[in-house]
Amino acid sequence: MSNTPVSKRSAAAPLAPALHPSLQLAEDTPTDAYAGLVREQLALLGEDPQREGLLKTPERVAKAMGFLTRGYSMTLSDVVGDALFEERHENMVMVRDIELYSLCEHHLLPFFGKAHIAYIPNSRIVGLSKLPRIVDMFARRLQVQERLTEQVAGAIEEVLQPRGVGVVIEAFHMCMMMRGVEKQNSRTITSALRGVFRDDAKTRDEFLRLAYASHH
Ligand SMILES: [Zn+2]
Closest by alpha carbon to 173, among 164, 186, 160? Predict the structure, then answer.
């Protein structure tokens, strides 16, 4: 940044008039409006948005952000569809190591890791492939890990009305790692326990033992 001859302020100024018309298009062409913001962001960083390597960056970022936040346009009923089944299964159902990628809402930087989900049915089960999709629906929004964990548990509760549900998420946060705020390899672990997972120690212990088994 220091080797650029243009100050941050003067670099940004010529772009402002071009930006505002595209912002007014926001409702019709959100990608263009977002790209315009990214162009201004690049200038504010002291970059030259017109140099070759950055020319298409605003459009790329706009597309990428659309993908990374696509969970906003998904609903639980879309995601689960008709994959609900009546079943007299009374033992724990668990899907472990569900990959997740999200963006922290405080820094718009990625956090990523794994979710472990278990529930004890109350005469209703869901197709197993739907659990990762439920995680994805909430992860592809701006998030904090604690809320993401609660939302996944709440969604499963809503869809299945199970006897209990447990969700553990373990994730690495780039906003901590890249900024050197915490130890570089620290993993944040959150859990949400509902129904028998909260009230019954034996169920809770079994779930947590299975959830953490991957590390031992
Ligand atoms: Zn953050």
Answer: 186
φ, ψ for residue 193 (rounded to 5)? -125, 125
Distance 212 CA to ligand 1 centre (A): 24
| Single pTM value for the model | 0.83
| Whether 107 is catalytic | yes
**Overall average pLDDT of the 150-167 stretch:** 97
Asked if 99 is an active-site residue, the reply is: no
The active-site residue, picked from 89, 150, 161, 175, is 175
User: Would residue 89 show up in a list of annotated catalytic residues for this protein?
Assistant: no
197-206 tens-digit pLDDT = 999 999 999 9
